[in-house]
Amino acid sequence: MDRIRVAILGATGLVGQVFVDILSNHPWFEIVELMASKESAGKKYETVAKWALNKPIPEIVRDITVKETNPKELRSDVDLVFSALPSGIAKELEPKFAEKFKVISKASAYRMDNLVPLLIPEVNPEHLELIEIQQRKNKWDGFLITDPNCTTCIFMLSLKPIYDKFGVEAVIATSMQAISGAGYEGLYAMQIHDNIIPFIKGEEEKLKNETLKILGRIEDGKIIKPNIKISATCTRVPVIHGHTLSVSLKLRDKATVDEIKKTLASFKGLPQELNLPSAPKYPVIVRDEINRPQPRLDRNTYNGMAVTVGRIREDEVLDIKYIVTGHNLVRGAAGASILDAELLYKKGYL
Ligand SMILES: NC(=O)c1ccc[n+]([C@@H]2O[C@H](COP(=O)([O-])OP(=O)(O)OC[C@H]3O[C@@H](n4cnc5c(N)ncnc54)[C@H](OP(=O)(O)O)[C@@H]3O)[C@@H](O)[C@H]2O)c1
Fold first, then answer.
1. 3-class SS at 164?
2. How far, in Å, from the CA of 106 to the mean position of ligand 1?
């Protein structure tokens, strides 16, 4: 097969670096353009990437000259654009890219737009049907799809199998989010060391609203959201990578702890069925040990593409509770978008 030519926006940032890392070794995709702010433009990637991964910058991108983020600067033969732009910049620029190019965005700017799929390939692949409506209404040759906030990505993989089998009426979720979720310049050591930050701007609304959109069913081109009560608390903790949530659920139908374990452990979606290159064999791993999951031990399961659930037990107030952890920069960010791209390719959108 011909390789699919991809560009990365926000390529020098934390999420951009994970895109660069995964895509440098990808069997289908080839990085042909890297874009960032005007300050980085015109310089070699290795001199402007604030490289923070614990492996070297891939050889094939070191000498690429970073361009300013502008669709007019992009090679016209680019097949797909991954965006890891800050949300404010994404709001202005992503529609301009989508006029001509196919864009998958990690930014929050268009996640809640009615015409934009908010995709998790194992959870709501049927939302891709919005692409055609979006292209028609906006008169775009390209399209824009988004994937969820990092915490929502991790949470949803644990919720969806239970939601499908037993129904979910209410959720109480508390996140303990890693420092790298705040981007390269997110937090000073003095703020987070020996500490917990009890508030992350906008995060609780995202966890609630995105969950309802993702679980929505499409009727006449519109997403009809389910009726689930969600109470979210999002905190930042001194962990480098890996977001963890403590979750309690009220179920529609009664379920035992064993039934929940089996449901989660056997869950598979379209990426597994299609054998996509980045798809983990199982997207949810269930651990029985009393002291798991832990972000440091479990975030890299299946190359960071699976989430790990443990401490599944009865909840004295609702019905069931558990802890889930996953890699915010991989399953919650770049890896999620790359899995979207693989699905888009297999489904004939690229
Ligand atoms: N970190 C996570 O776990 C995570 C997870 C899910 C989603 N996200 C979302 O992904 C996006 C990127 O996050 P991040 O953590 O990678 O942030 P980051 O480390 O701060 O990187 C920001 C990137 O955006 C570029 N940029 C900044 N201002 C720009 C401008 N005016 N024009 C064009 N490019 C500009 C930067 O380029 P320069 O180097 O040239 O300044 C850099 O490449 C955000 O929308 C974030 O909310 C992050």
1. helix
2. 9
User: What domains lie within the chain, and their CATH numbers?
Assistant: 4-149+334-346 (3.40.50.720), 150-328 (3.30.360.10)
What does the angle CA 342 – CA 180 – CA 213 come to, to the nearest 5 degrees? 50
**319 near 155, Cβ under 8 Å?**
no
Identify which of 44, 69, 81, 106 to mutate to test ligand 1's pocket (most ligand atoms within 8 A of the CB): 106
63 CA to centre of ligand 1 in angstroms: 21
Residue 15 Cβ inside 6 Å of ligand 1? The answer reads: yes
**Ligand 1 nearest atom to the CA of residue 50, by list position:** 39
Residue 104 φ then ψ, to 5°:
-115, 120
Residue type (1 letter), 278: S
Averaged pLDDT in 10-residue chunks for the chain of 350 residues: 95 97 97 98 97 95 98 97 98 98 98 98 98 97 97 98 98 97 83 95 98 97 97 97 98 98 98 98 98 98 98 98 98 98 97
- pTM reported for the whole predicted model: 0.97
> Catalytic residue numbers?
150, 243
Find the 334 Cα to ligand 1 centroid distance in Å: 12
